[in-house]
């Protein structure tokens, strides 16, 4: 495991947990990224000001990281067709399943919700199978 | 207004966590999913750290009568484990494995001027709109 970086992973994870807690404390809701993002494009969604500011925070820090520590922004592998297809599946799947790595994986599991545990195990399993399939094909 | 500033701060903190933990590098995510290669367990530590902190703080926060800037705490969705949950999560996992991006890191990488992340986020948004078109009667997306 020469790529294993437990200390930054744990520190980053703690910051994510604090961010999710700040969203709950101030707005009383889950910090599920896919749900917040989908709501930005829904005419009836409430809290659009909050959603827009939340994503402005994500984008501004992304730009700051690119300027100060560009190695932290990696490059996805594969053709543009594969990347678009991956995006379509992630967008559709998170709406059908009601959450992603943050909504189910962090917030739902923190509430000890069985459905979020099942969702998380499911997307990790199909993620593993996808990577192994790509590896076998290449 | 203050509520929006809290949103900005939370988004910034979330993105900082994703970047520091290496999750804005798709190869770290693929390294976690590639269990037969040189397995990189970092992602499990990211989730462990986030869940450990949030599981404790959410119980303290829920003792308040209401959130600071909203009328009430949103109750957890009272839904059972159904085929939608399983199918949706399975489909999400396939996309996650194909690109190494889930929604949060991809949006942070768009801020980092990464073209492929932008392509991914456009595809992701289109996928969400496809879902909404197919399941138009469902109002679930609003309540998320």
Report on the structure:
Chain A is mostly helical. Chain A has a domain at 76-138. Chain A contains six helices and no strands. In chain A, helix 2 packs across helix 3 and helix 5 (101-110) runs antiparallel to helix 6 (114-137). The radius of gyration of chain A is 17 Å and the shape is globular. Chain B is mainly α. Chain B has one domain (2-143). Helices cover 67% and strands 0% of the residues of chain B. Chain B is built from seven helices and no strands. Chain B has helices spanning 2-20, 26-33, 42-61, 83-99, 103-111, 115-134, 140-143. In chain B, helix 5 (103-111) packs across helix 6. The radius of gyration of chain B is 17 Å and the shape is globular. The model of chain B has no long low-confidence stretch (mean pLDDT 93). Chains A and B meet through helix 1, helix 2, helix 3, helix 4 and helix 5 of A and helix 1, helix 2, helix 3, helix 4 and helix 5 of B.
Overall structural domain count of chain B: 1
Q: Determine the strand fraction of chain A and express it as a percent band.
A: under 5%
How many individual β-strands of chain A? 0
The most extensive interface between chains reads:
A-B, 120 and 121 residues
Average pLDDT of chain A: 95
Report the end-to-end length of chain A measured between terminal Cα atoms. 22 Å
Overall 3D form of chain B:
globular
Our Rg estimate of chain B from Cα atoms comes to: 17 Å
Instruction: Report the uncertain regions of chain B.
Output: none
Q: How many separate helices of chain B?
A: 7
Query: Which shape of chain A, going by the Cα principal axes?
Result: globular
Distance between the termini of chain B: 22 Å
């Amino acid at each position: 495991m020469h790529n294993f970086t437990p200390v930054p992973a744990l520190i980053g994870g703690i910051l994510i947990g604090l961010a999710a807690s700040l969203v709950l404390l101030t707005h009383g809701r889950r910090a599920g990224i896919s749900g917040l993002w989908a709501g930005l494009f829904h005419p009836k969604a409430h809290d659009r000001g909050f959603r827009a500011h939340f994503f402005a925070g994500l984008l501004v820090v992304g730009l700051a990281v690119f300027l100060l520590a560009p190695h932290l922004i990696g490059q996805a592998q594969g053709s543009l067709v594969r990347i678009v297809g991956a995006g379509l599946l992630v967008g559709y799947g998170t709406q059908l399943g009601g959450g992603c790595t943050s909504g189910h994986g962090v917030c739902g599991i923190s509430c000890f919700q069985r459905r979020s545990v099942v969702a998380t195990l499911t997307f990790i399993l199909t993620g593993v199978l996808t990577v192994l399939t790509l590896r076998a094909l290449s | 207004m203050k509520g929006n500033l809290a949103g900005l701060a939370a988004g910034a903190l979330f993105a900082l966590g994703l970047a520091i933990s290496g999750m804005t590098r798709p190869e770290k995510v693929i390294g976690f999913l590639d269990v037969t290669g040189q397995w990189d367990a970092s992602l499990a530590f990211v989730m462990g750290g986030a869940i450990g902190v949030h599981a404790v703080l959410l119980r303290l926060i829920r003792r308040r009568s209401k959130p600071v800037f909203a009328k009430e705490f949103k109750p957890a969705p009272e839904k059972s484990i159904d085929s939608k949950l399983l199918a949706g999560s399975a489909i999400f996992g396939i996309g996650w494995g194909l690109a190494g991006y889930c929604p949060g890191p991809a949006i942070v990488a768009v801020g980092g001027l990464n073209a492929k992340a932008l392509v991914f986020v456009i595809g992701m948004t289109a996928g969400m709109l496809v879902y909404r078109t197919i399941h138009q009667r469902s109002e679930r997306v609003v309540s998320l």
